[in-house]
Design brief:
The protein has ten helices and eleven strands. By secondary structure, it is an alpha/beta fold. It has two domains: about 90 residues, 3-Layer(aba) Sandwich (Rossmann fold); about 130 residues, NAD(P)-binding Rossmann-like Domain (Rossmann fold), CATH 3.40.50.720. It has a six-stranded parallel sheet. Helix 6 crosses helix 7. About 45% of the residues are buried. Bound molecules: guanine (GUN).
């Protein structure tokens, strides 16, 4: 039987509507500052989408652009200004950063109370301790979609494919917090297909196009595809298309529910960023 598609675009739209309503009801104007260093085309698209989405729900947004050869000091000075700007409730420095800049030093320079990415060591630490704090947007969006498909998570076996600080590690923490039994697999994992076949919930976040094949999926599993990979479109020579980390057509035949690419996790990341920014403006994040 074909899997149910988890419509991330629709879930994200509902979340954005709730955020817009709350902004009106609470009479706040949340402010989101997005920082882009260099001219990576994909990052430019993401940054534009984030700014536009913020304004659509009634927030203020600013995009600060620095050249690709900007120094670490320039970026630190910019962040220091945003940290003390009372109109700014959320600061997002788009990653990856150019090689001359130490990304960890930049992440650590953002005020943890404005760290809407949830990447600061304070927020990462709070997540691992089970304390309230900003949660990274992509894993939080994945959790919402998983709960859409599978309300009762306790005792389920979840496998996270990928161990990045942005997705894999926080995803592991959130699944653990939801009482799942969690495994994190990665490039050194032995017999990855066999490990995947044991998972009731499979989250793929490795950045390899259509890497997870249909026969790696446990029948009836929930599959969350975090990958956004641009590949040549063989059906239309000269054109490209977006695919996930999962071979979608094959996985459809085995999974109970699966997120598409595009229209799955991607829109949820932005909606969760807006939610974090609203919490930052309301000063409620530490009491989540
Ligand atoms: N680059 C890829 N994903 C992200 C994200 O969630 N936040 C930031 N700041 N950069 C990214």
């Amino acid at each position: 039987m074909a899997a149910r598609t988890i419509d991330g675009a629709a879930v994200a739209k509902r979340l954005r509507e709730k955020i817009a309503e709350k902004i009106v009801a609470r009479r706040v104007v949340p402010g989101l500052a997005v920082v882009l260093v260099g001219d990576d085309p994909a990052s430019q698209v993401y940054v534009r989408n984030k700014g536009r989405a913020a304004e659509e729900v009634g927030m203020k947004s600013w995009t600060h652009r620095l050249p690709a050869d900007a120094t670490q000091k320039q970026l630190l000075d910019l962040i220091a200004g945003l940290n003390i700007d009372p109109q700014v409730h959320g600061i997002l420095v788009q990653l990856p950063l150019p090689k001359q800049i130490d990304a960890q030093a930049i992440i650590a320079a953002v005020d943890p109370a404005k760290d809407v990415d949830g990447f600061h060591p304070v927020n990462a630490g709070r997540l691992s301790l089970g304390l309230p704090g900003f949660v990274p947007c992509t894993p939080r969006g994945c959790m919402i979609l998983i709960r859409e498909a599978l309300p009762d998570l306790a005792g389920r076996k979840a496998l996270v494919l990928g161990r990045s600080n942005i997705v894999g590690k926080p995803m592991m923490q959130l699944l653990l917090r939801a009482d799942c039994t969690v495994m994190v697999a990665h490039s050194k994992t032995r017999d990855l297909p066999a490990e995947c076949r044991t998972a009731d919930i499979l989250v793929a976040a490795i950045g390899k196009p259509e890497f997870v094949r249909g026969d790696w999926i446990k029948p009836g599993a929930v599959v969350i595809d975090v990958g956004i990979n641009r590949i040549d479109n063989l059906a239309q020579p000269g054109k490209s298309k977006l695919v996930g980390d999962v071979a979608y057509g094959e996985a459809m035949e085995r999974a109970a529910a699966i997120t598409p690419v595009p229209g799955g996790v991607g829109p949820m990341t932005i909606a969760c960023l807006l939610e974090n920014t609203l919490w930052g403006a309301l000063g409620e994040v530490m009491g989540l």
